[in-house]
Amino acid sequence: MQRRLLRDGAIVLDEWRTAGDEAVSHDDALMLGLPEFRAERERLLARAGPLGVILAPADNEQELVPDLSRLALVAAEFTSVSEGRGYTQGKLLRERWGFAGELRARGAVRRDQVFLLARCGFNSFELPESELEGAKAALRTFSAAYQSSNDRGLGAALRHRQ
Hints:
Structural class: alpha/beta
Number of strands: 8
Mean pLDDT: 89
Number of helices: 6
Order of helices and strands: EEEEHHEEHEHEHH
Distance between the termini: 28 Å
Largest sheet: 8 strands, mixed
Helix content: 25-40%
């Protein structure tokens, strides 16, 4: 069964596959860890399908800079609820490196984190199925924020969908 996730304020089916999935074709949207990307960079970039890289908390997002324009997705892995390095990775990818693709939070992500992750530039969230509706609502928790952010107009986009 295909997994659902929260992307751009809507609950959608996740079309992305991982290297461990069965029968991944050359045209499938494929995301894999940074070590796998490093090891087969040229072959992977030559694929026909969209490509994404998963960053572990200790990975340096700057390694992806030369290839950001060729990546459709970058995912930050949250290994525990107290892990915060993904927030920084996301913010740097958006603000310093200008990444315009899908920025996904995955792993130990819960609905109470979604609003703050969106403020850092994340637009896609892997959550337990039971938390998807609550996370969607959490994106509208506050009508105004005082801190600067990189949510790239996410609030305006969500208001138009209501």
